[in-house]
Amino acid sequence: MDKKGYTKDKANEIAQAVVQKEAQRRICKNENCKHFSHDHIRNAETCLVESCECNEFTK
Ligand SMILES: [Zn+2]
Ligand SMILES: [Zn+2]
């Protein structure tokens, strides 16, 4: 137990969950796309991935 009351494993688990949540938020919500937001032209809301027809990138 550390001072926060978590075991080291539990703390790692929580850290992993946060990282995964962050990654999820960066993935396009378009079912046909699911590329990362950095694959999109932010202002045009268009996906940069070749052959991907996504044009409705949502944050
Ligand atoms: Zn895409
Ligand atoms: Zn997309």
Describe, in plain words, how this protein is organized in 3D.
This protein has 59 residues and is mostly helical. The protein has one domain (1-59). The protein has one helix and two strands; from the N terminus they run H-E-E. The protein has one helix spanning 8-25, and strands spanning 40-41, 46-47. It has a two-stranded antiparallel sheet with strand order 1-2. A hairpin with a 4-residue loop joins strand 1 and strand 2 (46-47). It starts with 7 loop residues before the first helix and ends in a 12-residue tail after the last strand. Bound molecules: zinc ion (2 copies). One zinc ion binds at residues 28, 33, 35, 39, 47, 49, 52, 54. The site of one zinc ion (ZN) has 8 residues, from loops.
Main attributes?
rod-shaped; 59 residues; mainly alpha; 2 strands
- The oligomerization state is single chain
Ligand types: zinc ion
The geometry reads as rod-shaped
In sequence order, what are the helices and strands, one letter per element? HEE
Rg on CA atoms, Å: 17 Å
Mean pLDDT, rounded to whole units?
A: 84
Count the E strands.
2
Can you count the helices?
1
Structural class: mainly alpha
CA(first)-CA(last) distance: 38 Å
